[in-house]
Every structure is written in C-alpha cells, then in structure tokens.
Amino acid sequence: MKDNAYDVIVIGLGGMGSAAAYHLARRGTRVLGLEKFTPAHDRGSSHGGSRIIRQSYFEDPAYVPLLLRAYELWEELAGLSGLEVYEMTGGLFIGPPECLTVAGSLRAAREWSLAHEVFDAPEIRRRFPTFTPGADDVAVYEAKAGFARPEMTVQAHIDLAAREGATLRFGEEVTGWSDGPRGVTVTTGSGTYTAGQLVICPGAWAPELLTDLGIPITIERQVLYWLDPAGGIGPFEDHPIYIDENANGQQIYGFPAIDGPTGGVKTAFFRKGQVCTPDTIDRTVRAGEVDEMRDRVTQLLPALSGPAVHTATCMYSNTPDEHFVITRPHDYDNVTVACGFSGHGFKFVPVVGEVLADLATTGATAHPIGLFDPRRLVTT
Ligand SMILES: Cc1cc2nc3c(=O)[nH]c(=O)nc-3n(C[C@H](O)[C@H](O)[C@H](O)COP(=O)(O)OP(=O)(O)OC[C@H]3O[C@@H](n4cnc5c(N)ncnc54)[C@H](O)[C@@H]3O)c2cc1C
Known about the structure:
By secondary structure, the chain is α+β, with helices and mostly antiparallel strands. The chain folds into two domains: about 5-45 and about 150-215 and about 320-375, FAD/NAD(P)-binding domain (3-Layer(bba) Sandwich); about 90-145 and about 220-320, D-Amino Acid Oxidase, Chain A, domain 2 (2-Layer Sandwich). Helix content is about 25%, strand content about 25%. It has helices at about 15-25, 65-80, 100-110, 120-125, 150-165, 205-210, 235, 285-300, 350-360, and strands at about 5-10, 30-35, 50-55, 85-90, 90-95, 115-120, 140, 145-150, 165-170, 175-180, 185-190, 190-200, 220-225, 240-245, 250-255, 265-270, 310-320, 325, 335-340. The strands form three sheets. Strands 1, 2, 9, 10, 11, 12, 18 and 19 form an eight-stranded mixed beta sheet that branches. Strands 6-7-5-14-15-16-13-17 form an eight-stranded mixed beta sheet, sandwiched between helices. The chain has a three-stranded antiparallel beta sheet with strand order 3-8-4, covered by helices on one side. Flavin-adenine dinucleotide binds near residues 173, 222 and 344. The site of flavin-adenine dinucleotide (FAD) has 37 residues, from helix 1, strand 3, strand 13 and strand 17. InterPro entries: 3-OH-isobutyrate_DH-rel_CS, FAD-dep_OxRdtase, FAD/NAD-bd_sf, MTOX. Keywords: FAD, Flavoprotein, Oxidoreductase.
C-alpha cells in the first residue's frame, strides 16, 4: 500500500506495542506509533520496576517455545540497548507437590527438558535460609529464572524503534480506527493517519478500543508492595524470585531487593484484585491491604515483617481462561491485535513484538500461537 503514509500504525506503545514498533521498524517498515501517555508511563500494565521471567511454565507447556525465543531476544535487547533489561536470579516455585505452581512447572520442565531441580522443605530452608516453607511443601528450582525491568524495557524498545526510523507520537490518544480495502485509517485528537496495516496493543483499554471484536476481557486492579525487611535488605540482595501457592490455591510472588537499602523488597498477590476500568481503578492502597499482604508473605519469608515503604497499583487484562489473545481478526483485512495478557505477559514482550511484526508484514508467523486464537473464547 505505497499510497498510504505509513506501512503500519501501532496503537499503544506499552510493553507489547513498543516491542512491535521496534521489530517492524528494524525490518524496514514505515511505522507510526501512537501512545496516549508518556514513554514508559505508570498508568497501564508495564510499570513497577520488575517482572518475573521464567521458562518452566505452569500455565501451559505450549508457552515454552515462545519463552525460549523470548530469552534469545531478551539477551539481544540487552546487547543492543546496553541496558540491564533483565537479570537472572534463579526462581523457586513452591507449594504442595500436587498444586499448579509445582506440578505445572514440573510438567513444562520435563516436557521441554528444561534444567531444573526439586527440593523438599528442609532442602529449601538449607539452600535459601530466608524461606520457611510448610513441612509438606516442595519447590521446583529453575536457575534460568529472574526478572525483567519493565520501564527500562519499554524505553529501550522505544529508543531502538526511533533509531530504526519509526515515528512515535506520545500524548496522542486514538479516538477511532477503521479498516478498508486500501488499508486502515486511525483518528486521534490531532489528526487522521492512514497505513497499510494496523497493530493494536491496547492493554487495559482493550474493551474500549476493540468494542466490535467481542473479545471478553475483564480489567483487574492489582497492588504491588515494597516491604521493609526486619534486619535490613542484606539477605534479600542475592535472592531468587519466587512464586508460592498455599493449600487454598492462592499464589504470591516476589523479587530480590533491587531498589537500594531503603527501597524495600517487592511482593504481591498473583490474581487477587477487584474488577475495574482504567478510569475507575482505585489507586489508593489501604493499610488493611498492606496488613493482609504482610500476614501472607511472612508465613513464607518471616523477615518481611516491616512497614511498606512504597505501594503501587497496576492492571491485569484477563481473558476467561487467562491465555493471551494474539490474532488477525477474521472480519478485518489489515488488523492485528494483541491483548488479554492476563497478568503474565511481560516475559514475552520481545517475542510478541516479533510475532506482531510477522503477522503485520506477512499475515502469518512461524511461532506457535494457536493457543491465543480468540475463537476459543466464543461461547455459542
Ligand atoms: C502488578 C502486575 C504484575 C505483573 N507481573 C508480571 C510478571 O511478573 N511477569 C510477567 O510476565 N508479566 C507480569 N505482568 C503482566 C505484564 O506486565 C502485562 O501482561 C504486560 O505489561 C501488558 O503489556 P501491554 O502492552 O498489553 O499493556 P500496556 O503496557 O499497558 O500497554 C498498552 C498501551 O496502550 C496505550 N493506549 C491505550 N489506549 C490508547 C489509545 N486510545 N490511544 C493511544 N494509546 C493507547 C496505553 O496508554 C498503554 O501505554 C504483571 C502485570 C501487573 C499489572
């Protein structure tokens, strides 16, 4: 579509959109990226300093090949940007042997021959003295787990996309888009743009930007807590990431101390939030919420008994089965959509960028994305 001003317009330059803009631009595509907020902002889903990355994927072993490619691209991104966008710390996935966190991680590790070890409770305590697991708990330990830095990652993709020639416009909200035989038209408060292809990465704004697609997505408020460890951050400096599941199936997760001596140690509940919208989310974190977090995490890590030095809110975009949506919707000729990352998308950011660039430029991808077809969610 050479008569259009751009080859591809990307709506939303958060985690996924910034990666898509970069992967498109580096293929020589004329890219326009449109973002309603500032670069690497904290109003969506890609902020808060750290995101767990891991490969023994309890959610479904089908994610593993994407993770193997994502890890290659994480390394490449670190090299190209010169930034420590991720760090390997090792990861512990803890709980009763039959729980999803443990059994699911083990299943993925075995199916894909991923390096891992299994520890019983005394072994966990011996190797990682900060932890006090239940007597019957076990842990899958994965050395190739760690964390990515979301704001740094988004900024790195934005900078690299711009370096490759992408036009990126911030503070510009998309108010409408349409698809036609000659390409797409996108309207913002400042103008109207045309392109051959459209890639939409709306995060928590999916329900409003994708109204006609009928993809069921629920937005959920999540809280992040940085707790001050009694006795200082020392034992948490060289510390694995962890996900812990209790007998009720409730999961918490956390990170090493990466924010300096007074920055606290970050922990959170996985999937425990109120339904909201980006407009109605309550950004205030209450003392009762901090108490609930501390009561739960100190069962596993007793040293995290101090006050919260910082809290933040963030949004999950949940599909009913908590698997992603990555698709070229059938009723459109020139549109690619990536949404519904259901609270576990960040570790895939670089490979989703590559997949979206494949789909927008060739209409197909060699990556296995069958699990993310939204037709699975249609109930008739
Ligand atoms: C608390 C929390 C913890 C998490 N922990 C992990 C973890 O440990 N590991 C992991 O892998 N994942 C984790 N996730 C999930 C992961 O962070 C998300 O899946 C991922 O960041 C989603 O990226 P996105 O691009 O879809 O959304 P976003 O990064 O929010 O990007 C969407 C962008 O679209 C823009 N936009 C929306 N509407 C418009 C419009 N009309 N015009 C222009 N721009 C628009 C928004 O401003 C935003 O920048 C976590 C998420 C949260 C909230």
